[in-house]
Design a protein that fits this description.
- This protein has helices at 21-28, 44-63, 77-83, 85-88, 111-121, 167-187, 265-270, 293-303, 331-346, 360-370, 380-385, 403-415; strands spanning 32-36, 39-42, 67-68, 74-76, 94-97, 103-106, 130-139, 154-164, 193-196, 206-213, 219-223, 230-232, 249-263, 273-275, 281-283, 285-292, 305-306, 309-310, 321-325, 351-353, 374-378, 388-392, 398-401.
- With 416 residues, it is α+β, with helices and mostly antiparallel strands.
Length: 416
C-alpha cells in the first residue's frame, strides 16, 4: 500500500480526549477515531491490526475443534426475560421496540441466543461434544465509557461455547480453551496473568480471568512479586502469598478474557436438553469463553511501546515493512523504492511505502510512531553505494547491506 492512497492521519499532539498512554498512541498513530463517546471508527491501520488479531484467534479456536458461526446482533428481550438476566444487566442493554411492536435489544452478549439455537438443533448425546464460537460486535450502554477501546459502547468480542453430556467433557473443553488463550495472548505479544474469578451474572461455579499488567489498567489484582501468583483484589493491601509468604502487591491490569463453567444454568431454563444413552432426557452442560478482541489493540500498545511510539509484535503489525524514500522528488530514489516494494509484495511480505513529499525527519518520526516492525530507508547515499538500510523497530538495530542481504534479513525476521 502507498501512504498517499490510504488514510493514516498521524498527530504530533495528543488529543484532549485521550485518557491513557495506549489511547493516546492509538489516536496519534491514526488507528481509530471517535464518533461519539464510546463509539469508534477503525481506520485502515487499526482495522488491519484488528483483522490480524482475529486471524490468530480463529487459528487457535479451530485448533481446539471449535466451529465458527455468526449470531444475530438483534435479540428479542423476551429471551432474556426467561433467564432473568434482563434485570441483571438491563441498565446497560440498548433496548427498543421495532415496527412490529416487538421488544428488541442490541446484543450485549449471546449466551441466551446460542442456547436457544442449540436447543432447537440438538436431540441426542451422539451430537456432543460441540464447541461453537463467533467474533461479533457487542453493544452496551456504558454509564461511563472511557479509555478508548478499553471500555466502549460498541466493541468486538470473541465468544465461544462448549456443549457436553458429562462434566468430564466440560473439564476437557475448559482446559483446551484455557491453554488456547495462553497461546493467543503470547502470539499477540502480551504478558498475561491468570486469576480465579467470581462468575458474576454469567453464572456457573468456576471462572478464570486473563489480565494484562498495564500502567493505566482499570482493573486491580494482587500479585506476588516472588512466584507470580495472582488473585483478584477484594480486600485491603497487606495480604501475604500462601505459597512463599511474600507480601502481595496491587497491580493495575486490563481484563482481556474471561472463561466460565456455566453448567446447566442456561440449558435448564431454556430447555436445551438431549437424550442420553440410557434414554433419559438431560440438560446439556455448557462452558463459555470470551475475549475482548478490540480492547486487545490497546492492551498490546500498553505493553509494547517506547518514547517514540508503538512497537507492534510481528504477528499483528499492520504491515511487516515500511519503506522510507527520503526524497520523493528524486527519480532514482523512487525507482528503487518502487522496486523494493514490488519485490517484497511478490515475496508475500506486506509493505507500506511512504510516498509522501515530506522531510526525512517527519517520515522517521511517523514510522516510529506507527510501530511497523521493519523500516527500509532509501536515500541518495543508498543509491550511490547500491545498498539499503534496514532498521528493526523494536531494538533500533540498523543494517546497511546489499538488497539481497537485506531481503534475507527481512524474510528471516518475518518467518522466524
Amino acid at each position: 500500500m502507498f501512504w498517499t492512497r490510504t488514510l493514516i492521519p498521524t498527530l504530533k499532539e495528543t488529543p484532549q480526549e485521550a485518557e491513557t498512554l495506549s489511547h493516546q498512541l492509538m489516536l496519534r498513530a491514526g488507528l481509530a477515531r471517535m464518533l461519539v463517546a464510546g463509539v469508534y471508527s477503525y481506520l485502515p491501520l487499526g482495522l488491519k491490526v484488528l483483522n490480524n488479531i482475529e486471524k490468530i484467534i480463529r487459528e487457535e479456536m479451530d485448533s481446539c475443534g471449535a466451529s465458527e458461526l455468526l449470531l444475530p446482533a438483534l435479540q428479542p428481550q423476551d429471551l432474556w426475560a426467561k433467564t432473568g438476566r434482563d434485570k441483571d444487566i438491563g441498565e446497560v442493554m440498548i433496548k427498543f421496540r421495532d415496527r412490529r411492536g416487538r421488544n428488541m435489544c442490541l446484543g450485549p452478549t449471546h449466551e441466551e441466543v446460542i442456547t436457544d439455537l442449540v436447543r432447537s438443533q440438538l436431540s441426542s448425546y451422539k451430537q456432543l461434544p460441540l464447541v461453537l464460537y463467533q467474533i461479533q460486535t457487542k453493544f452496551r450502554d456504558e454509564i461511563r465509557p472511557r479509555f478508548g477501546l478499553i471500555r466502549s459502547c460498541e466493541f468486538v468480542m470473541k465468544d465461544a461455547y462448549s456443549f457436553d453430556s458429562e462434566e468430564d467433557g466440560l473439564d476437557r473443553n475448559y482446559k483446551a480453551m484455557f491453554d488456547a488463550y495462553g497461546r493467543i495472548f503470547k502470539r499477540c505479544g502480551l504478558k498475561v496473568l491468570t486469576t480465579e474469578a467470581d462468575p458474576g451474572v454469567m453464572g456457573g461455579n468456576v471462572s478464570h480471568e486473563f489480565m494484562a499488567p498495564a500502567r493505566d489498567g482499570e482493573d486491580v489484582i494482587l500479585l506476588c512479586p516472588e512466584c507470580g501468583i495472582a488473585r483478584p483484589f477484594k480486600e485491603a493491601a497487606g495480604e501475604i502469598c500462601v505459597h512463599c509468604e511474600k507480601k502481595l502487591v496491587k497491580t493495575n491490569t486490563i481484563e482481556l478474557g474471561h472463561i466460565f463453567k456455566l453448567g446447566v444454568k442456561y440449558s435448564q431454563v431454556l430447555g436445551a436438553n438431549f437424550i442420553a444413552a440410557d434414554g433419559s432426557q438431560k440438560p446439556v452442560i455448557m462452558g463459555c469463553y470470551g475475549i475482548g478482541v478490540s480492547r486487545l489493540i490497546q492492551a498490546v500498545i500498553e505493553q509494547n511501546h517506547d518514547d517514540n511510539g508503538i512497537i507492534w509484535p510481528k504477528e499483528i503489525s499492520p504491515y511487516q515493512v515500511i519503506i522510507l524514500p527520503l526524497d520523493t522528488t528524486d527519480a532514482n530514489i523512487m525507482s528503487k523504492a518502487n522496486e523494493v516494494y514490488s519485490e517484497l509484495r511478490q515475496g508475500g511480505i506486506e509493505a507500506l511505502l511512504d510516498d509522501r513529499n515530506e522531510r526525512a525527519g517527519v517520515k522517521f518520526k511517523d514510522a516510529d510512531l506507527l510501530g511497523i516492525c521493519l523500516q527500509v530507508v532509501i536515500g541518495r547515499d543508498s543509491i550511490k553505494k547500491n545498498v539499503l538500510e534496514l532498521k528493526i523497530r523494536s531494538d533500533q538495530k540498523k543494517f546497511i547491506e546489499t538488497k539481497t542481504e537485506i531481503f534475507e534479513k527481512i524474510k528471516g525476521f518475518v518467518n522466524g
